Amino acid sequence: MATERLDRQRVINAAVALLDAEGLDALSTRRLGTVLEASANAMYWHVGNKENLVGLATNAGFAELELRTDGESWRDRLAATARELRGLFTRHSWLTAAFSAHPRIHGPEIVRFQNHLLQVCQQAGFEGFDLDWAGATVFSFVIGDAWGQAQSPTPDDSSAMTTELLERVKTELTDYPLLLERYTALANADPATVDVASFEFGLCSMLDGLQAHLDHQNGTTSPNT
Amino acid sequence: MATERLDRQRVINAAVALLDAEGLDALSTRRLGTVLEASANAMYWHVGNKENLVGLATNAGFAELELRTDGESWRDRLAATARELRGLFTRHSWLTAAFSAHPRIHGPEIVRFQNHLLQVCQQAGFEGFDLDWAGATVFSFVIGDAWGQAQSPTPDDSSAMTTELLERVKTELTDYPLLLERYTALANADPATVDVASFEFGLCSMLDGLQAHLDHQNGTTSPNT
DNA sequence: ACCTGAACACCGTTCAAGT
DNA sequence: ACCTGAACACCGTTCAAGT
């Protein structure tokens, strides 16, 4: 009733809250209007249109990133950056869908992160296009990993439903015994620890791969430094 | 006028054609209806609903993958698999958005690919959960890379517009000289070759990283085999 | 079995009109 | 300057009714 005046930040905050709670599909101008106790089109004055609002929400997400530069080695710094980014995408699981739906999303906080990532790669010893490729490799892996986590988001049903589902899958995967074996092994493991372990394995592999590139670039003579 | 009877495959084919041509947002039940010279809701009998249709279209995409097992080494086979998957995602750029919007997508052709990926990783020497992590690492990287390519899809405007846009960006990136430098360097390069080079760099890094894991796992005594 | 027409509840966006 | 109400052109989906 005695609702405060709207402003851009309040609209963005409400959008982020709605996105976190119910996902990208739940964000509509009318739902946002009711949340803000305003008409459905009140937001247009503040954020232009919906696509722009999603962009602003995404940018607000990236503002959460703590970009530290005090790691002991480039490897530590790059790992910390990757983990920060991954944390962002798990806290706001709508981010991958938002980027996919609106590829033009950009903003100062996103730019800030990109610059940080490039800086860390530069300190590691990458130059020229290799700098871009190294940054893109890290970014791609983290995005792809977050994208994979979003694929299995529904432990709504407890173990009872799971075993029934497992039976159904068992008949579907009859031609692929290896896949069935891995599927059951993963189904019996704790999802949270599985996700972390999967990410850390990939991250470690990526860092080893980048390390190999740097070693080769600086001459393979002293690989033990 | 003398339109053939509808069937599930024709609906899927029309959906894929529409998706390829105009993207995920363009796929609506009514547009599909006009393409098929049928009513907007004719598809419901054949494919259930829209989400299911997108799943079927995705599955149809994965059917295109040629999964070869005749590589000389596990590294060749895994690289070939990754490149096949990347090709699929570049030919059908709506795939990342489709997966993001409907995380529950699955199907026999997708399962077939997953099994192939696991097989290749198994032949490489991975076992147990490492098998899953290795596969997930490759998959995540390829998805993330495809996702990145989709971010810069609009060379609609030729070089004239690009230079004007470059000026605008130059003021935005004034706080980030490193990012500005890399941005201009990339803007002056051929986008297609850039995309390929970026992917190949990341792929090579990933394979080196997996290689390092296998070496360590089998004992670091014989790294030259 | 397969398809249509009409209907329902929703959407993003615009724009005159209000304060 | 900021916001509302009504309107427009779209959605996905359902369902009785047709053949």
Describe the structure.
- Two copies of one chain form a homodimer.
- Chain A is mostly helical and 225 residues long.
- Chain A has a domain of 46 residues: Arc Repressor Mutant, subunit A (Orthogonal Bundle).
- Chain A binds a DNA duplex (19 and 19 nucleotides) through helix 3.
Tags for this model:
11 helices; DNA-binding; flat; Arc Repressor Mutant, subunit A; homodimer; mainly alpha; 0% strand; 225 residues
CATH fold annotation of the domain at 3-48 in chain A: Arc Repressor Mutant, subunit A
Number of strands of chain A: 0
Largest sheet of chain A: none
Tally of helical runs of chain A? 11
Helix content of chain A: over 70%
Query: Using only CA atoms, what is the Rg of chain A?
Result: 22 Å
Uncertain segments of chain A: none
Assembly type of the chains comes to homodimer
Q: Give the strand content of chain A.
A: under 5%
User: Mean pLDDT of chain A, rounded to whole units?
Assistant: 91
- What would CATH call the class of the domain at 3-48 in chain A? Mainly Alpha
Please name the two chains that share the biggest interface, counting residues whose Cβ lies under 8 Å from a Cβ on the partner chain: A-B, 63 and 63 residues
Query: Helix and strand string of chain A, N-terminal first?
Result: HHHHHHHHHHH
The CATH superfamily name of the domain at 3-48 in chain A is: Homeodomain-like
Summarize the helices and strands and which ones pair or pack.
The structure is a homodimer of 225-residue chains.
Chain A (H helix, E strand, L loop, with lengths): L7 H15 L6 H7 L7 H5 L2 H13 L11 H18 L3 H7 L6 H17 L3 H24 L7 H14 L4 H11 L3 H27 L8
Helix pairs in contact in A: 1-4, 4-7, 5-7, 5-8, 5-11, 7-8, 8-11
Chain A binds a DNA duplex (19 and 19 nucleotides) through helix 3.
